[in-house]
Amino acid sequence: NQQFRLAARPVGLPVAANWQLLEEALAPLEEGQVRVKVLYLSLDPAMRGWMNEGKSYIRPVAIGEVMRAGAVGVVVESRSPRFAAGDHVSGAFGVQRYWTGAADEKSGVVKIDPALAPLPAWLNVLGMPGMTAYFGLLEVGQPKAGETVVVSAAAGAVGMTVGQVARQLGCRVVGIAGGADKCRFVVEELGFDACIDYKEGPLGPGLKQHCPNGVDVYFDNVGGEILDAVLTRINMKARIVICGAISQYNNTTPVKGPANYLSLLVNRARMEGIVVFDYAPRYPEGVARLAQWLREGSFRHREHVVEGFEKFPEALLMLFEGKNFGKLVLKIAEA
Ligand code: NDP
Predict the structure, then answer these.
(1) pTM score, whole prediction
(2) Residues whose CB is less than 8 angstroms from the CB of residue 161 and which lie 6 or more positions away in sequence, other chains included
(3) Which of 47, 130, 185, 227 reaches 20 to 30 Å from 243, CA-CA?
């Protein structure tokens, strides 16, 4: 069983020396356990945070531990009544070719239906990013029909679903993304009302043009200067969903907070964080609603598939350079 383990904590962007590629023999199954052959690994911006020491919403990956990762795979051996060989499953299987463990309720291992959507989509719209978008927008953002919703990293995994859910609710939806191709995709394929290319120049004029009635909900995936720019355009009682701050994850200096935060005071607005895991008991509800929209054909998803287990370290970096176009997944075995 090949595994990527955390060898050392990174300073700034992760480098090769932060990883150790190990080979380990597979142990025989114990009663209640299953063995999963991992097919697709989810590469997530959050992985960078999990590599850091210190208190967070989840404990850090320990030095020498297999790197944490969400994944989908197929059960190849089972001594659990809950799963049979051949079942497709998702879970936190880690960056390794096989996962062996107790498949009880607590494990978080769940069956997925490849007939409903292709396997990589279970790491995207029907997986963790989709749940983040769905519950983060609805529960924290609380958008109403006719309001203006802005979302950053709009062509990415979370962003694409945020915008499409907002559109379903009858909101005006404006994306922010890097580059003309991503902006075109967001408007033409996903049906956003507009998309602003933040690499083209300052955001101010685009926000003014495309949010003529101001911003009611800002779903923030990136933090930094983009958050600051949107703060200058918010309406009374605006809701800012703090989902992530990818522009800050590889800082070697402290995270830069918003200079324009007094806009919250002036507009009696709020900023609130979301951690998707809090909604785990409600995932079935999110999956059902998103699957329904997928079936109706009005909803799109896009995955960026990189192939090869050994490519893990370099593929992860794509997220921080905007080189992924859609949800980034690593294919490590044939289904
Ligand atoms: P994406 O698929 O959106 O990929 C990351 C994208 O971020 C890149 O493609 C790039 O898009 C953009 N980006 C990278 N660096 C910068 C930068 N310096 N400034 C602006 N944009 C940048 O990833 P996800 O959808 O998986 O994650 C999006 C955000 O959601 C992350 O912050 C992540 O941590 C957060 N998240 C939070 C969760 C929670 O529970 N709170 C759960 C899941 C995700 P572009 O080319 O447009 O710049």
Answers:
(1) 0.97
(2) 124, 125, 129, 130, 133, 134, 290, 301
(3) 185
